Amino acid sequence: MDNTVSLELGGKQLRIEAGRVAKQANGSVLLYCGDTVILATATMSRQAREGMDFFPLTCDYEERKYAVGKIPGGFVKRGGRPSEKAILTSRLIDRPLRPLFPDGMRNDVQVVAMPLSVDLSTAPDVLAVNAAAFALAVSDIPFDGPVACVRVIRKDGELIVNPSFEEMTQADMEIIAAGTRDTVNMLEAEASEASNEDVVAAIQLAHDNIIMLCDAQDELARKLGVAKAEPILSLPDPEIMDRIKKDFLSEISSALVDPDKAARESALDDLKKSIVERLADAYPERSADVGAAADKVIKKEVRRLILDENKRPDGRDADTIRALSSEVGLLPRVHGSGLFTRGQTQVLTALVLGSVDDAQIVDGIEEDTTKRYMHYYNFPPYSVGEVRPMRGPGRREIGHGALAEKALRPMIPDEETFPYSILLTSEVLESNGSTSMASTCASTLALMDAGVPIKKPVGGIAMGLMTDGDRYKILTDIQGMEDFSGDMDFKVAGTRDGVTAIQLDTKIRGLSMQQVAETIQKADTARQTVLDSIQSALPAPREEMSQYAPRALVVQINPEKIGEVIGPGGRNIKKIEADTGAKLAIEQDGRVFITSTDAAGGERAAKIVEDMTRELSVGETFTGTVVRTTNFGAFIELAGGKDGLLRIQEMSDHRIGRTEDALNVGDEVMVRIAEIDDMGRINLERRSLIAEGLAEPLVINPNAAPPSDRREERGDRGDRGGRDRGGDRGGRGGRSGGRGEDHRGNDRERGDRGGRERSDRGHKPDRPSRPSRPDHTQTSTRVDRPSGLADNEPRAPQARFRPKAS
Q1: Which of 262, 293, 647, 735 has a 20 to 30 A CA-CA distance from 523?
Q2: HEC secondary structure over 16-34
Q3: Taking the alpha carbons of 680, 686, 688, 692 in that order, is the dihedral positive or negative?
Q4: pLDDT over 50 at 195, yes or no
Q5: Is it the case that residue 617 has pLDDT exceeding 90?
Q6: 503: helix, coil or strand?
């Protein structure tokens, strides 16, 4: 029996196969797209859960690194907690499926989507949503499908369905839409100031392709012919609801209309308790049923007041926004802060800047990346007046944080313009509707307060919907009760010129395209009011950053010089950081990011890097420092720690008998590069500078010893030649590993200069210095040396002391 269906989506072939694997689940499919294979299963418990007041649906997206041929990094190779991408994809699967299960269903349902193979040509997240929908379609689980999901992007002005990863990176708008044949019930969008019309056009194109996927689901379900089970639904008793409406509706209406959330909820709680007590005799031992019926009546009354009387719980009409307040600079030690208040929703966002090395490493089954702009969202229990343990962030917190991050991402300056990592943390202080959009607004305030040159301010608003099937009313700036009792939560963020992010969730089958377009237009009008409030606090980003924020510089170097900056084992870069207090990060393209809390330290680090990597040329003039003297000249440290040899005959326009007569270690002297040989060794001179009047002749030390007293010094040339001093100078570079990887002599071991000294005495100039050999004769002589003779005092070869014979 053929249990497969195939279709083309955006030029790529999809094949869905059922009944081959995981047959003990209620429904399972394998979805193929190129080399990507997604396994999706749907399983339902046999019994409904007692005492539940919500539908226990769990959707899991299980990443496996083997799907892309990777072994997980770190010590734990099995894998651990799900990544942020996996959590967001799990939510992406849950949101379009949940509204289509029967109201009152209390059986546990678990949907698992697992990529078994991913070819990275098509993102597996949307494929996972579709695989989950197919698994439910072929199962016996009650489900009002079909439902499907499609991604559409805009690249170079053209809309593309089911794009590749490469195309997604080049897009300026991305829409993920899910829905049934006639409605849209989930949206996730990110755009670079897209117009309302362009957004609606992309959603319409996505919905056209959703219909094709729905047809394929019905075809596969018909092939398998699995009948849907009849669930036991937990619904309020209609008789109790009628009794409550008859006896208590006026009290409920009065309690509902109160602008203060805490007072309204307290009054409703007291009223529900009163209703339960007063109906206890009529419905003995059914207090839970009476409470559930009262909740249902309250929801219906909220809906009636809005649809019939245009009266919202806080007294506003459908298009009015609650009172707005925007503040900046509340936290002096953080690098930027913003407080945004809308009615009884309040969010404080703190911003911290760091170096590019502080960016988050994203290691998933897709391409490994780094993220230098991050936003986190926290929702503590006190924000809603509750008491509960404070643990790690849940799926809701991660999802809300990702939405606010997405809304601002198109406005964040690139790394070239603003070479920092940016971390925003939004703390919800009060919650009465749409804290995610309040987080977006508070984040905009914090960014501008920190002096981050965002392109434009971003604001956001949450829209709601009340409908009874024939009529509907779109609500601007929904509060908690309207979200709880309403039919949708439609969040739209953007600038004054266009949309940057959208998120839609519904509690009904979905919205018509007319309702989608109308909501986006109303959100645009409301967003302008929100942006007015934001810009009243701070019209544009500050010109100066906080005094506590790090300062960043970017130096571009030749990529071939990266090794010189880093040094063996990071020796050079660590020394720069230790000497200047700056933090350096080097990219493969040769960009060096320098971050320092001290501006002067950053400038010093930048100069060191520039000097270290600059290309020296013949004729350049430097004022260098003498770092070592020999009998044939002096080594002068030039830019970036490079050394050059100033020979004794090139030091001045008159004869100098001994180097130390004119120059000593630590002296500063002006020199000019005379030659750079094929090994990169630098020869210096001063005579032309003296002739041109740019430098003065060196002055001879009047206390210099006469030539006849220098025999000992000439006899000790081996030590001056560089073997021992070369070891001391190893930290500067060369083959002993100081300044980097230029082993040709820019920062060479002093042994090379030892070869030059021997050349003056008739040896071959390019012959490397020979390491000293152990001398057992000298060792025995040292043992027998009389105590009166100093270690460095010369002696005749026959100076052997033996005891006289008795």
Answers
A1: 262
A2: EEECCCCCCCCEEEEEEEC
A3: positive
A4: yes
A5: no
A6: strand
Q: Report d(CA 445, CA 340) in Å as an integer.
A: 8
Q: Max CA-CA distance within the chain? A: 137
| Whether the Cβ atoms of residue 129 and residue 178 lie closer than 8 Å to each other | yes
pLDDT tens sequence across 249-281: 999 988 888 888 888 888 888 999 999 999 988
Q: What's the whole-number mean pLDDT along residues 366-378?
A: 89
The pLDDT of residue 705 is 55
CA distance 51 to 46: 16
Residues sharing a CB contact under 8 Å with residue 152, sequence separation 6 or more, in sequence order: 159, 160, 161, 163, 174, 175, 177, 202, 203, 205, 206
How many whole angstroms separate alpha carbon 105 and alpha carbon 475? 29
Q: Judging by beta carbons within 10 Å of its beta carbon (0-12, 13-18, 19+), is residue 156 exposed, middle or buried? A: exposed
Return the number of other C-beta atoms located less than 10 Å from residue 411's C-beta.
Answer: 20
Rounded Cα gap, residues 172 and 154, in angstroms: 6
Whole-angstrom distance, CA of residue 502 vs CA of residue 515: 15
Q: Is 50 exceeded by the pLDDT of residue 763?
A: no
Angle, vertex CA 334, rays to CA 328 and CA 338, nearest 5: 20
Distances (CA, A) of 611 to 166, 564, 615, 670: 39, 11, 9, 17
The Cα 222–Cα 226 span in angstroms is 8
pLDDT in tens, 695-753: 888 877 766 555 544 444 444 444 434 434 344 434 333 333 333 444 333 443 333 44
Query: Count of alpha carbons within 13 Å of 596, Cβ hemisphere only?
Result: 21
- Structure-model confidence comparison of residues 161 and 641, the more confident one: 161
- Cis omega (within 30 of 0) for bond into 765: no
How many residues can be counted in the chain? 806
Please name the helix (run of DSSP H) or strand (run of DSSP E) that holds residue 215, with its range, or none: helix 196-224
Kindly write down the DSSP assignment for every residue of 230-275, as one continuous string.
Answer: -PPB----HHHHHHHHHHHHHHHHHHH--S-HHHHHHHHHHHHHHH
166's CB contacts (< 8 A; 6+ apart) are none
pTM: 0.79
Alpha-carbon distances of 86 from 34, 128, 395, rounded to whole Å: 21, 11, 10
